[in-house]
Amino acid sequence: MNNKVGTEVSEDSKSEKTPTASPSISVLAAITASLERDKETKGHPFKYQVGNTWNLKNNVSTEFVEQIQKKFRRKNKFHSYFSGLPSNKTPDGLKKLISGDIALDDLAVELIKILTITANESESRNLVGGNIVFMHYKTFGDYEDHGRLMIVMVDKKGAFEFEEGTLQPRRLQPIDTDALRQAAMFDLTLFLEIHPKKEGSAYLHFIDGKSKAEFFKTALGCDIKVTNQQSVNNVFEAIKKFSNENKLGPAFLKKVTEKVYEHIEKNLGKQVSLVEIQQVIDKGLPAGHKLTATFAKYANENGFQINSVFEATRQALEKSISIKITDFNSNYSVSVKAASIGYAGSNKPVQVDDELTYLKIPLSEADREKIKASIGDHESSDEDSN
């Protein structure tokens, strides 16, 4: 078959979609498209080419999916829902795929067109293309499962190799997932249950590999607010303002901050929803309090950008409850948990004077020895200054 640049694959090229069984998954269909700069056109816009549907009689497709799934489990993910904008056609395409009204190769053509347009509209001059793999697979033996659609962008010159023209995958041992640039996974069963609502478990999942460009999320219609790090930070900022504005008192703020911290800590690397945070806060309120079930609405209405579902790392969590302190000349920089700071005379380990001019920090034996080795003891330091 002769592939057409910027056009669909002809009907006679579609291979039989007999699922390939594995101990855990069945691959129903897969196809590769390429997205690259057109060096012969002014401005070098992106163009696309769609290959043949994969031959599922070998194990390459199954191995590919399993390797990417491992990558998804290990990497920090961005979870979300579809934006709900009328211009977003991806939900309609997924519904047709689930109902059988459209084949994966036809859906891939629709999506690669959108990806190409979005890439060309991107303001990033450093945006590069790659091979984009579309895979529809499901849990092996689960006939109620509508499956998942995975869209993966990989380097054109990397460990992922595809046949020239047909873009069929070659077997590689091992598959190098470091060549992955971006990936999106749509849980079709959850999507059918939840869409168009934006609550409950998220059905869209993204990971950034070598590329951090937002065009992938934008083109596929993801509802983007902020990063996971910003979501975690804004949760704790919103809690402080929520407590202070409603005069709930320092004891409430301390208790709720600790409980929210514990909840996120128990779910590091997992989905945490804004509704879950609200439920933790509600437990700190008296029964029947008028502010029960209001935190999520408060956070959204007061400009705290928090994704409906986010995923925290240890670093993001620690950073969100700490204050970084530095002087004008950058002579020092210290990060202190906000809950550890108090005025002089309090029981807090880190103390400030009434005018907030100086900070007093207790030193460990090891730190004292390091400082002493650098400046000497007090007596010798006084002699040197005379």
Polypeptide structure, described:
With 386 residues, the chain is of the alpha+beta class. It has three domains: 11-219, no CATH class; 228-318, no CATH class; 325-374, no CATH class. It contains twelve helices and 15 strands. The chain has helices at residues 60-74, 90-99, 104-121, 188-194, 215-219, 228-245, 250-266, 274-283, 295-301, 314-320, 365-375, 378-385; strands at residues 20-21, 25-37, 46-53, 78-80, 130-139, 148-154, 180-187, 204-208, 272-273, 309-310, 322-326, 333-337, 341-343, 350-352, 359-360. Strands 1, 2, 3, 4, 5, 6, 7 and 8 form an eight-stranded antiparallel beta sheet that branches. The chain has a three-stranded mixed beta sheet with strand order 13-14-15, with no helix packed on it. Strands 9-10 form a two-stranded antiparallel ribbon. A hairpin with an 8-residue loop joins strand 2 (25-37) and strand 3 (46-53). Helix 2 runs antiparallel to helix 3 (104-121), helix 6 runs antiparallel to helix 7 and helix 6 runs parallel beside helix 10. The longest helix has 18 residues, at 104-121. Residues 1-22 have low confidence and may be disordered.
